[in-house]
Design brief:
By secondary structure, the chain is an alpha/beta fold. It has four domains: about 190 residues, Rossmann fold, CATH 3.40.50; about 190 residues, Rossmann fold, CATH 3.40.50.300; about 100 residues, Winged helix-like DNA-binding domain superfamily/Winged helix DNA-binding domain (Arc Repressor Mutant, subunit A, Orthogonal Bundle); about 80 residues, DNA polymerase, domain 1, CATH 1.10.150. It has a seven-stranded parallel sheet, sandwiched between helices. The chain has a six-stranded parallel sheet with strand order 8-13-12-9-11-10, sandwiched between helices. Helix 5 links the parallel strand 3 and strand 4. Bound molecules: adenosine-5'-diphosphate (ADP) and zinc ion (ZN).
């Protein structure tokens, strides 16, 4: 508790932290499941400081390691890392510090840890504890599988009396069991905190003109904020980045096709500069620990609810309001289903992937709370309304679409189940096109039976039918629509079908300010102070070559602006100001505050 305040500058523990810390300090093992941004790091950092010897942290992510170490050093904790980014001399110096007992915390990459040389080093020191970060990397079914993680059980064999803690943000039951089994944590205390991220606002819009929609979203709600825009393909990443740049945004592309040094440079700018937007494939994000990412936008559908939650979870780690925004349309579903069918994996695997995609599409189409849908998916039982997602904020109307669906089914059936959504819509509307005339479909009894809806509305109906598997899209060929087993119940009128009423135009949200946060001070004086603090932070960060947030978080500045400390004693009370930072930066920032008061 004392360390929490004096080193980290925090007034109280977050849920579960204290429990884990006490358990570890007393020598027990633990498995900690907490969402991104939940505060996992403190769970091993404080015990490592309290217990004699050095805490050894296994982490697969080099950039994260560097960030954590810079942050700890800013707070006066004796921390270092060993990984492949260092030269031999630097590595040697760290080893020396370790042997001299001059480190509280040492971060190592798993491949380094497992070398005989390093394991031997460990026998010559007192390990305070072993922390295994991103523990889901042991799971062979997960997307972050790391072979070396399987061998980490060696730690327990060699050092049976050193407490171990495994940490992950991956929630599901099977991954948890795999971690326990593979790391030999049967005796460990399992601590699970809720997975809700209440500060993230979830919004899923119907795709119309996705680029314009994105532009409006960023321009109206997140101007000047740092954010990530996810696209499926490299090509789309490039073109979207280019386009946003033309519109005047500070934006950089990131995908696996870019040279390593370019990728590193772009990632670095994202971390170290303010207000950079990264347009990326999912290659970007693992190990991005930037606390003030204010939005994550998806221009394409992720593969599953898990992937969606993980990707959107990179927003708002600092707990301040953030937005997860996605544009979604029929084409996305068709494309992803095609990718699954065409992939060369086992039928069993495909079935799993289809199922996962269906769950995500379900999330896109729900008319009830999105957060509830997501959290239920992870086995939680959240309240009915969260009040911070689009469906809670602007309730979605439904309508009885049974007759409309029947009309679609008839048209699909009578044209031989070989045409796509566009053509079927033309038939429903009774369009006079060359193609329809050539094929003689103008004589069908269903020609022109759907004039009560317009093109956009029919598209919406068809999309929802596909989403619910009431229509099949031929994924091998040209996207032709076919009836499914389930279609017949609706066709025969045995089941009623309620559909979502899509919003015509996303209403211009004038007062979306609620989703704005940092820098949204209404008083001009507050705003100027805020900018001045951030500017000074940027200068210090640049001088030291570290990201700004390791100096002070935005949340800390917000508190300074609101509370306006007048001396160091008051400064000490601000969240995030520990003794060391007070000493290093207290006077400097105090002066800025006083100048602005
Ligand atoms: P995780 O590793 O679980 O994603 P972190 O350990 O990086 O999360 O913590 C997320 C953020 O919360 C960090 O900015 C951290 O400084 C902050 N934080 C953690 N614990 C507390 C606390 N008890 N009080 C205030 N802030 C905290
Ligand atoms: Zn909600």
């Amino acid at each position: 508790m004392h360390i929490l305040q004096s080193v980290f500058g925090y007034g109280s523990f977050r849920s579960c932290q204290e429990e884990v810390i006490d358990h570890l300090v007393a020598g027990g093992d633990a498995l900690v499941l907490m969402p991104t941004g939940g505060g996992k790091s403190l769970c091993y950092q404080i015990p490592a400081i309290v217990r004699p010897g050095t805490g050894v942290v296994v982490s697969p992510l080099i950039s994260l390691m560097q960030d954590q170490v810079s942050g700890l050093m800013q707070s006066g904790v004796r921390a270092a890392y060993l990984n492949s980014s260092q030269d031999a001399y630097e590595g040697f110096r760290v080893e020396e510090q370790l042997l001299d007992g001059r480190l509280d915390l040492l971060y190592v990459a798993p491949e380094r840890l497992l070398t005989p040389r390093f394991l031997d080093l460990l026998t010559r020191i007192t390990p305070a504890l072993f922390a295994i970060d991103e523990a889901h990397c042991v799971s062979q079914w997960g997307h972050d599988f790391r072979r070396e993680y399987l061998q980490l059980s060696v730690l327990h064999k060699r050092f049976p009396h050193t407490p171990r803690i495994a940490l992950t943000a991956t929630a599901d039951e099977s991954t948890r069991n795999e971690i326990v089994e593979r790391l030999g944590l049967e005796e460990a205390k399992v601590v699970v905190s809720g997975f809700d991220r209440p500060n993230i606002r979830y919004r899923i819009a119907q795709k119309r003109n996705p680029r314009e929609q994105l532009l409006r979203f960023i321009g109206e709600e997140h101007e000047g904020d740092a954010g990530i825009v996810y696209c499926l393909s490299r090509k789309k990443v490039e073109s979207t980045a280019m386009w946003l740049k033309e519109k005047g945004f500070k934006v950089l592309p990131y995908h696996a096709g870019l040279p390593v040094d370019v990728r590193r440079r772009h990632q670095d700018s994202f971390l170290k500069e303010e207000g950079v937007i990264i347009v990326a494939t999912i290659a970007f994000g693992l190990g991005i620990d930037k606390p003030n990412v204010r939005f994550v936008a998806h221009l394409d559908l992720p593969k599953s609810v898990e992937a969606y939650y993980q990707e959107t979870g990179r927003a708002g780690r600092d707990g301040l309001p953030a937005t997860a925004w996605m544009a979604y349309g029929l084409q996305d579903v068709v494309m992803l289903r095609q990718m699954i069918e065409r992939s060369e994996t086992s039928e069993q695997r495909k079935r799993v992937e289809r199922h996962k995609l269906d769950a995500l599409v379900g999330l896109c189409e729900v008319t009830t709370c999105r957060r509830r849908t997501i959290l239920s998916h992870f086995g939680e039982t959240p309240p009915d309304h969260c009040g911070n997602c689009d469906t809670c904020l602007e309730s979605v109307e439904t309508w009885d679409g049974t007759v409309a669906a029947q009309k679609v089914f008839s048209c699909v059936y009578r044209t031989g189940q070989i045409f796509g959504a566009g053509y079927i819509t033309d038939i429903l509307l009774g369009k006079d096109s060359d193609r329809i005339r050539r094929l003689g479909h103008g004589r069908l009894s269903t020609f022109g039976i759907g004039k009560e809806l317009d093109t956009a509305e029919w598209r919406s109906v068809i999309r929802q039918l596909v989403a619910r598997n009431l229509l099949d899209v031929d994924v091998e060929g040209f996207g032709s629509l076919r009836l499914t087993k389930e279609s017949y119940a609706v066709l025969k009128g045995e089941a009623k079908l309620y559909l979502r009423k899509d919003k015509r135009e996303e209403k211009r949200r004038k007062k979306v300010r609620a989703a704005r946060h940092t820098g949204s001070f209404t008083e001009a004086g507050d705003r100027r102070l805020w900018e001045a603090l951030r500017k000074r932070r940027a200068d210090i960060a640049r001088e030291q070559g570290v990201p700004p947030y390791v100096i002070f978080h935005d949340t800390t500045f917000m508190e300074m602006v609101v509370r306006r400390p007048v001396d160091l004693d008051q400064m000490r009370l601000i969240t995030g100001v520990g003794e060391r930072k007070l000493e290093m930066y207290g006077n400097e920032f105090l002066r800025i505050i006083i100048e602005h008061s």
